[in-house]
Amino acid sequence: MIKLLILDVDGVLTDGRKYYGLDGMPLMKTYCDKDFTAIKMLRAAGLKVCFLSGDNKVNEAMANNRNIDFYYARGKDKSEFIPQFVTNYNVSPSEMAYVGDDLFDFTIMEKVGHKFCPNDASSFIINLCGEDNIIDRPA
């Protein structure tokens, strides 16, 4: 049973495009409001949801605006957060689900009970998830 849904953001909740400011930092991204509707419904059903991302500027602000827990992973192996999730959410790794799309998601996906990816994820991640765990991304 899944009790915690951990979401990568870029390439999962966004289309992967970033718009940069003159300072060379991400300024803007494209999110899909239907994802936030799904998150609201999952939370209303009792599922805990958090974001795990390497971008703490745009993505953390979006998480804070939506009252979603945010964990900043830049420069860290994402699997290092598993003990913190166990403590913070009182769940075991087998009760965690992770949605990711790229190589930086691999190590955590190996260690949680459930793994999913969008259909445009890297082929390495698609192979790890298996065809039954691929989420169709609307065009």
Keyword list:
139 residues; 6-stranded parallel beta sheet; two-stranded antiparallel sheet; alpha/beta
Structural class: alpha/beta
Strands in their spatial order, largest beta sheet: 5-4-1-6-7-8
Instruction: Summarize the helix and strand pattern as letters.
Output: EEEHEHEHEHEHE
Overall mean pLDDT score? 94
From the N-terminal CA to the C-terminal CA, the straight-line distance is 30 Å
Low-confidence stretches: none
Q: Give the overall shape.
A: globular
Number of helices: 5
What summary fits the major beta sheet?
Answer: 6 strands, parallel
Helicity, as a percent range: 25-40%
Rg calculated over all Cα atoms: 14 Å
Note the beta-strand portion: 25-35%
Number of strands: 8
